[in-house]
TrEMBL record, chains A, B:
<dbReference type="InterPro" id="IPR011051">
    <property type="entry name" value="RmlC_Cupin_sf"/>
</dbReference>
<feature type="domain" description="Cupin type-2">
    <location>
        <begin position="44"/>
        <end position="94"/>
    </location>
</feature>
<dbReference type="InterPro" id="IPR014710">
    <property type="entry name" value="RmlC-like_jellyroll"/>
</dbReference>
<dbReference type="InterPro" id="IPR013096">
    <property type="entry name" value="Cupin_2"/>
</dbReference>
<dbReference type="InterPro" id="IPR052044">
    <property type="entry name" value="PKS_Associated_Protein"/>
</dbReference>
<protein>
    <recommendedName>
        <fullName>Cupin type-2 domain-containing protein</fullName>
    </recommendedName>
</protein>
<dbReference type="Pfam" id="PF07883">
    <property type="entry name" value="Cupin_2"/>
</dbReference>
Length: 125, 125
């Protein structure tokens, strides 16, 4: 190890975020990326075939809609894992700040391509 | 999916913690465990040969000591990843609450066995 490992300040990471639904990688741990994102409105129904996705709400409120008109409502301090293969749709009726943990390979709109889809390169930029 | 995936409240998870240096698993995401722990004092110098370990400080202050008298000081909102193979020693001069992300296989004192070492079974109990 030459230099010391970096420390990321989460508030500063959120401060750098300009756009909604545009996750940014803050750090990698093993094969997972930790990302920050600001959400407002609705993303898109999608699933990640082989990848669990962890949501940790820092600010605001996030609804994860599931099939059969079911949903969970997450507030600050809530940790929720959407299991691999499960169809879901994140909805933020007010601005919501989240931390995500998911494999480095995960595409944030899963198997669905939308105008909002950000590549992994976008998320690292 | 039969029932909806569980939601964990992080404050409640910390409230259930009684002992220092006794991490508890709150959720699994892919091959990683997310754990909460309360720290006070010094753990032990150790390394995790093949596993990165993420520290996220929720409350208090944590110093990660590295070799050659180097260290980083983490406050609330700091995210820091100790890379695999790197010798380190966590020191909390005041009580510190942290979230850890590390592989499900990681032993919290690495390759060092101490009276404080908690098994993975302990951490899941």
């Amino acid at each position: 190890m030459s230099g010391l490992p970096e420390t990321v300040d989460i508030e500063a990471a959120f401060a750098r975020l300009r756009d909604h639904w545009s996750p940014r990688v803050v750090v990698q741990v093993n094969d997972q990326y930790v990302k920050v994102a600001k959400l407002l409105g609705e993303l898109v129904w999608h699933r990640h075939t082989d990848e669990d996705e962890l949501f940790y709400v820092v600010r605001g409120q996030l609804v994860i809609e599931y099939e059969a008109d079911r949903s969970v409502t997450l507030g600050p301090g809530s940790i929720h894992v959407v299991p691999r293969g499960v169809l879901h749709n994140p909805v933020a009726r007010e601005e919501c700040w989240i931390v995500l943990v998911e494999p480095a390979t995960t595409r944030h709109t899963g198997d669905v391509e939308t105008p909002r889809t950000k590549s992994i390169a976008d998320q690292l930029a």
